[in-house]
Amino acid sequence: MPRAVRERQMMDAAVRTFGQRGYRAASMDEIAELAGVSKPLVYLYLHSKEELFTACIRREAKALVDAVRAGAEPGLPADRQLWSGLRAFFTHTAENPDGWAVLHRQARTHGEPFADEVAVMRDEIVAFVTELIGAAAREAHRDPELPDRDVAGLAQALVGAAESLAGWANETPGVSAKEAAATLMNFSWAGLENLMNGRPWQPPVPDREHAASAR
């Protein structure tokens, strides 16, 4: 069997084991048995348990980023791009629950260097969502654009919500990727649309707050 095929089998087994058992509880013996190879072969190809886990994080992170980028079709209106990107995200996390568990739960809870690997992936997705929101703002009105700080904050909030919702959707029977994407779209788009069209929500003026409380 070609080395690349054998290595992919080992990585698949590792992602499944790490995702379901956790990094600490997973053993190289389990991974080798699931992959149908000897433990020495796993060490020969993928070295230590730490290096194997890092390789799993990198592979699953790249797959997720690629899926989101491929899903958000360029040239569509801003809301359709966001919708297709979100649907691609939730479809990928639903179809690869062990990979998502590795990224969302396991890597983040075991400190460096694993958390740093996930942070790189997250930064890439946030940057992509920032581009989408910025493009949507330019599409909504010719002049002026949303402040960079606002766009960056919106992207962070949207990605954080998507991560939490994906974890909930994967653990809740009957929740489809389309339903999860629609939930987040309904939650986020009305506010984004108002903001991009120059109608942001504003905190109450202090004088009005005091007047209202006095009544």
Mind explaining what this structure looks like?
- With 215 residues, this protein is mainly α.
- It is built from 10 helices and no strands.
- The protein has helices spanning 3-21, 28-35, 39-46, 49-71, 78-95, 97-106, 114-140, 148-171, 177-196, 206-214.
- Helix 5 runs antiparallel to helix 9 (177-196).
- The longest helix is centred in the middle third of the chain and has 27 residues, at 114-140.
- The protein starts with a helix and ends with a helix.
- The model has no long low-confidence stretch (mean pLDDT 82).
Residue windows where pLDDT falls under 50 for at least 5 positions: none
Biggest beta-sheet profile: none
Percentage of residues in DSSP E strands: under 5%
Secondary structure tally, helices: 10
Helix % is over 70%
Provide mean pLDDT, rounded: 82
Taken from the alpha-carbon principal axes, the silhouette is elongated
Distance between the terminal alpha carbons, to the nearest Å? 80 Å
Counting helices, strands and paired strands, the structural category is: mainly alpha
Rg:
21 Å
Order of helices and strands: HHHHHHHHHH
User: What kind of assembly state do the chains in view correspond to?
Assistant: single chain
Overall strand count: 0
